[in-house]
Design goal:
By secondary structure, this protein is α/β, with parallel strands linked by helices. The chain contains eight helices and nine strands. It has a single domain, classed as Carbamate kinase (3-Layer(aba) Sandwich), CATH 3.40.1160.10. The protein has a nine-stranded mixed sheet with strand order 4-3-5-2-1-6-8-9-7, sandwiched between helices. The longest helix is centred in the middle third of the chain and has 25 residues. The two termini are 22 Å apart. The structure holds adenosine-5'-triphosphate and ligand LLZGTKA7.
């Protein structure tokens, strides 16, 4: 096993699959299956999931919403995705708990590092919802923060592209994929690996990021068992 404790960041947008909005049940089921398989190997898994498939605070501003309210709506969107994932993991026969950044019982338990580690000991996957709890941040930053807090060995960014490219591969067909690069190289080349706040947090705390395609069944297992797929970003 390459990793014993991981923080898996799942893209909200990737959860839409080919749909235009919301949660695609096929994608959700595939995520749950992959997570359960890896949890069964004894890997401790913390998960932060985005909300872009439902709502983003910034997009609300253009529709006349106050930014802070919009961001709170975005954070609630991540809670909706987290509950869906918990339900799917349980449906696949696994054990998962939802922790929330702000008080929301009985939807989820208030997040603390200690409760997450206790959950790991009891065999639970920890889904850490509600972003950082603060507006003007993203779930990329929440995943960097929670990854550092729970002492994960790596931040696995599971998304719908298979790594970091010289340019956005969804827009530039000539973009070339990197197998590995340093934080400094990614910063200098202005590559969109994660937003800058998240990126800096990972770099300063020496938490490597591995970007990989989570929408291909079996990829999460490949990553945790050390098969070289995706792009690794490290100091
Ligand atoms: N240089 C690059 N290499 C790879 N992907 C890139 C690059 N630049 C931009 N991207 C885009 O980043 C996306 C992946 O980022 P991410 O998983 O954060 O998606 P998101 O839509 O922002 O997710 P969320 O819904 O969680 O906010 C890809 O879909 C890709 O189009
Ligand atoms: O710490 C946080 C995390 C998220 N938000 C808001 O939620 C949405 C959805 O998150 P994504 O990372 O974009 O998927 C985000 O756009 C913010 O509006 C937040 O305010 N604080």
């Amino acid at each position: 096993m390459k990793y014993k404790r991981i923080l898996l960041k799942l893209s909200g947008e990737a959860l839409m699959g080919d749909d235009k909005y919301g949660i695609n049940t096929q994608v959700l089921t595939s995520y749950a299956k992959q997570i359960k398989e890896v949890a069964d190997l004894g890997v401790e898994i913390g998960i932060v999931i985005g909300g872009g498939n439902i709502f983003r605070g910034l997009s609300g501003v253009s529709k006349g919403f106050d930014r802070v309210k919009g961001d709170q709506m975005g954070m609630l969107a991540t809670v909706i995705n987290s509950l869906a994932l918990q339900s799917a993991i349980e449906g696949a026969g696994g054990k998962a708990k939802v922790f929330t950044a702000t008080k929301m019982e009985p939807v989820g338990e208030l997040y603390t590092k200690a409760k997450v580690l206790e959950g790991f000991q009891q065999g639970y996957v920890a889904i850490i919802a509600g972003g950082t709890g603060n507006p003007f941040f993203t779930t990329d930053t929440a995943s960097a923060l929670r990854g550092v807090e729970i002492e994960a060995e790596v931040l696995l960014k599971g998304t719908r592209v298979d790594g970091v490219y010289t340019a956005d591969p969804e827009k530039d067909k000539k973009a070339v994929k990197f197998d590995e690069l340093t934080f400094t190289e990614a910063y200098e080349k202005k590559l969109k690996v994660m937003d800058l706040t998240a990126f800096t947090m990972c770099s300063e705390n020496n938490l490597p990021i591995l970007v990989f395609d989570m929408n291909t069944l079996g990829n999460l297992m490949k990553v945790v068992t050390g098969e070289r797929i995706g792009t690794l970003v490290k100091n």
